[in-house]
Backbone:
């Protein structure tokens, strides 16, 4: 049982790290403005949900890599983190 929790936790953590990296990549490379300016624009425009949903796209790639490598429990952790990200996005969008 401990092995399953460990594998799911690894997938969950990798997914969270990928989402954070996705936020950074979006702000750093896909924004026309500087890092600080983009952060301020996100805060002023209340665009947290939109940025978070775009940043979660690398999770799709990670999920399919784990499925291809037959690491189903890690893929389950990625799926759980993606569902959590979707719920957070939903809450941020409607608050």
Residues:
């Amino acid at each position: 049982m401990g092995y399953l929790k460990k594998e799911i936790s690894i997938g969950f953590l990798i997914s969270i790290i990928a989402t954070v990296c996705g936020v950074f990549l979006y702000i750093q490379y896909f924004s026309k403005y500087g890092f600080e300016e983009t952060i301020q624009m996100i805060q002023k425009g209340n665009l947290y949900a939109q940025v978070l949903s775009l940043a979660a796209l690398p999770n799709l790639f990670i999920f399919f890599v784990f499925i291809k490598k037959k690491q189903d429990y890690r893929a389950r952790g990625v799926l759980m983190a993606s569902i959590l990200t979707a719920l957070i996005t939903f809450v941020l969008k409607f608050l």
Observations:
- The chain has a mean pLDDT of 91.
- Residues 2-30 form the longest helix (29 residues).
